[in-house]
Amino acid sequence: MQNREWKGVLCVDAVKLTIDGREVEVPAGTTILEAAEQIGIDIPRLCFDPELSLQGSCRLCVVEVEGAPLLSASCVTPVGRGMVVHTESPLVVETRRTILELLLANHPLDCLTCEKNGDCRLAEYCYRYGVKDSSFAGERHHYPIDDSNPFVLRDMNKCIQCGKCVRACAEIIGKDNIDYINRGFDRKVATYGDKPYVDSVCTFCGNCVAVCPTGALTEKPMQGKGRRWELDRVRTTCPFCGVGCNFDLCVKDGKLVGVLSNPDSPANGRALCVKGRFGWDFVNNEQRLTTPLIKREGKFEPASWEEAIDLISTRFTEIREKYGPKSFAALSSARCTNEENFLMQKFTRAVMGTNNVDHCART
After folding, report:
1. Predicted model pTM
2. Model pLDDT for residues 134-154, shown as the tens digit of each residue
3. Do 218 and 145 lie in a common domain?
């Protein structure tokens, strides 16, 4: 038994193995895929996700382990002491090409117009292994596109049945809105009774979209707004509540066109609610106020910030002097930061002289 310190934690039974000629030592129970990542070796995967339970169904992550009778799925195979692994041997590469061809045999090749172009794992791996078409001919699915709701566009013709959306709905959200139905060639991911999303118990959080590796699930409000490589991603904090979820604002030509999850978000990972992921359209609303307005002779007129702040200061002072501090109250918002809420209550108590402070989140 060997004891090793791993990322600051004392681990029992450190396992030493060789991957593509490079020696690595990891804790017992680590998978081959995780061990390979520790030394910068990228093994392709479609069904694996670090935030979801292991499934090992796509088989694209297979590797060759010396002495093993068959190729092993690296995402679910634990490391063994003295194991020698090859991640890009001729047999492994040929197997992955065959798997990709099998997927393409029942997958639309409309990559030029697909919304996921540039961010599609299937296309990425086909390019990596030189797979341009499928040598397998046969029947194809022709499912209708589900655009019954304003948030998620579902094209089951592009589904590769990796199961990530099913697991995300069950394990992250706890909703179990989707699962597999039917068997064999007719097996697919669907809601209860195979109803459209809009008629199901879906909350439209879009977390299934965030984990989908292909164009089967895409953000409907972002359709036609720009390719993924054209978008500038600006990390920010969601303003809708006090949880502090982070996400990336997608900006093109100086205009907000969508929101995408950021896996490095400390509070939420890629998980978002419907407000965080899809409640951004007000930013571009033509009725949104972009300058202060002051009412003069019964009509609102544009004013500078200096004019507006001076007027507020004058009126607050008049109210306090005429009616007393207790005539004033402040109601804060969950959309504000902690610092902004602190300043609001500080102003109310120190400047206006009252403790009449409340917050919308209290209710």
Report:
1. 0.84
2. 999 889 999 999 999 999 999
3. yes
